[in-house]
Amino acid sequence: xxxxxxxxxxxxxxxxxxxxxxxxxxxxxxxxxxALVAILKSPDSPPAAKVASANxxxxxxxxxxxxxxxxxxxxxxxxxxxxxxxxxDEQLGQLATILEWRKRRPVGGSCSRPGAWRPSCFMG
Length: 124
Fold this sequence. Notes:
- By secondary structure, this protein is mainly alpha-helical.
- It is 46% helix and 0% strand.
- Helix 2 packs across helix 3.
């Protein structure tokens, strides 16, 4: 099928070079953790180094914390939702044509402003 990737590595799998680098780095894992703990416990370590060490230890032990994501519409307004289930097949086809056209059309110009759309905006 056109547009679908076939063959190759599965998403997320490492290539040979990355696998070798990871295996080499993992040999030093326990020593690296010990070094981070030593920095964290040392009274001579600057506070910034202790925080960086603590964060590294926590990230490796518990995973990095999730970053909150906020989605919004134009200028931070709520995202508009429109129920399209009542549209006819013809209307859905027209909408699909418009969306396909917009995907290929560069953003900008009078047709990209809200409320400025007119039939000429959709003529290829």
